[in-house]
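Structure tokens please, single chain.
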Amino acid sequence: MTKQEVPTILNKKKCMVQTPVGELELMEDGKGICSLSFGASPESENVLEEETPLLAEAKKQLEEYFAGKRKAFELPLSLDGTEFQMRDWEELLRIPYGETRSYGEIAKAIGCPKGSRAVGMANRNNPIAVIVPCHRVIGANGSLTGYAGKNKALDIKEYLLKLEGVKLKKL
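Here you go.
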């Protein structure tokens, strides 16, 4: 199988998006957005770069978000994870723009009250950063903790929260 055959079989396409937090790689799988990562991901090496109508719409919505003109994404998502991860990511999607939750609050909301560390790991494995807003999850004391974005991860998290108007506590 050649590199060009792999994307056809997997039905994935990708495009890059320039944002204030750096270049993002956006990917779809024919069903919905399946990945948004900070920079090119090694998993996408064999994925065809082509701006499909869905990727163009996602790119437009991301540009609106970063311009402060969009508070909710209206895109089909194609999430794939464990049952726990799926519950976590679905709960992240319920956090309104401009609000935060603690890891413990997410754990309780998904029926695992002692699972704040597991929530942190599920957030770390969130394949669709920004759109599935793991940046809205903070420490119980209001601190910025953990963020899976590459290079200057907590700076990105802080930028996204400030963009959404969240008042961050100085610790």
